[in-house]
Every structure is written in C-alpha cells, then in structure tokens.
Amino acid sequence: MILVDTNILFDIATLDPHWAEWSFGELQDARMIGRLLINDVIYAELAARYNHIRDLENFIETVGVEMEAIPREALFLAGKVFTRYRKAGGTRTGVLSDFFIGAHAAVLNLSLLTRDEGRYRTYFPTVTLITPSLS
C-alpha cells in the first residue's frame, strides 16, 4: 500500500506544467505495487481546490485512491515529532499536516509518494519515499 501525498494529486488535478507528467507516471507505477491511499488530512487539503464535495469525490474516484483513517498511534506520533521539530527551531506554520501524513506512513509501514522529501526524510527516516530524486 502506498500513501499518496497531496502535492502529487494537486499536480494531476491542476495539470501542473512541470510536475503533472511525473506525478501521473509515478501514480500509475505505484498502482502496480499496491493500493493507493489518502487520509483525512490529504482529503481536507484537496478540498481547498474544489467548490463541491461531489467534484472532489469524482476526482478521488477517477485517480483511484482510497481513504484510510489515520490510526491514533500515528496521531500521537505526529504530535511528538512536531514538538521535536519546533524545539529544534522549526518555525514554519502550516506544516503539521506533513507530520500527520508522515506519521501515518510510519506507523502502518506505508511507502509515501511525494515531491517533498526534506521533513519526511528527517523526521520519519523509516518511511520509504518515492520522490523525484529516487525515480
């Protein structure tokens, strides 16, 4: 099973001129490996792009990803790792969602398809990342 980060789905939804082809190709390759998952946080981030829930639901169905709830163990881990990030001098706001996503992948031993490897590699070193630099 592979967790698909929001940026990959945004690339496809917006037909990003730089990333859409790579993201779509990697999504297709990932589908050959196993189920493609998103979680509540990714769903909420995607919702920012859509005016109606039915449009978001249609997109999710079209790209073939399934919802998977974030386990409590991952929610706890996300909070702990975010605290470590802040204590280490991390000041950017709006990054907590990355910690939820990374913790979800870590706790369930999921690979993560993403273009953002920095924080994931630093704070979730056990997660197998599928990133542009690795493909």
Automatic annotation (TrEMBL):
InterPro entries hit by this protein: PIN-like_dom_sf, PIN_dom, Type_II_TA_system_RNase
Cofactor(s) recorded in Swiss-Prot or TrEMBL: Mg(2+)
Cross-referenced Gene3D superfamilies: 5'-nuclease
Gene Ontology MF: a single term: hydrolase activity
TM stretches of this protein: none
Any Pfam family: PIN
Highest rank taxon of the organism: Bacteria
Domain annotation PIN: ranges: 2-123
Keywords, ordered alphabetically: DNA-binding, Hydrolase, Magnesium, Metal-binding, Nuclease, Toxin-antitoxin system
Keyword Magnesium: yes
Family of this protein: Belongs to the PINc/VapC protein family.
Annotated protein name in UniProt: DNA-binding protein
